[in-house]
Amino acid sequence: MSICTHNLCSLENSKKVLLIDHFMQKFTENIICISNDRLSYHQNRDDHDGDDYCVTIPKANGNFENVNSILYFENKKVRYIWDNDVREFIKLHGLDKDIKCTYFYQ
To answer: Is 3 helix (H, G, I), strand (E, B) or coil?
Structure first.
């Protein structure tokens, strides 16, 4: 007898994800949401509003985006973060990918 404990929904509204790898192994991972009040170690002051804090995350095209919260999950020691532009979780890469060295000299 099996009991269904979760419902199918869109990724942006989900609390867990079901992952199936190439070997047909199944993993369930919790989605973690960190809002701007818990990002005290990476806070930037937003130029538009003096009281609003946000965190800067790297984008796939080499640019950075300021966000108020981060949705992410980890699987096999790899972190995936939610990208609002493509509306899916993307693999978080280091600063060595898609970011030009001239960015650090500015």
So the answer is: coil
Residue 84: how many CA atoms within 13 Å on its side-chain side? 10
**Number of residues written out for the chain:** 106
The mean per-residue pLDDT over the stretch 24-28 comes to 92
Q: What DSSP letter does each residue of 5-40 carry, written as one string? A: ------GGG-SEEEEE-TT--EEEEE-EEEEGGG-G
Q: What tokens does 33 get?
A: 């949401």
For strands 78-83 and 69-75, give the pairing. antiparallel
SS3 104: helix
Confidence of residue 86 (pLDDT cuts 50, 70, 90): confident
Residue with tokens 């030009």: 100
CA angle 99, 103, 104 (to 5 degrees): 110
Which DSSP helix (H) or strand (E) runs through 57? Answer: strand 53-58
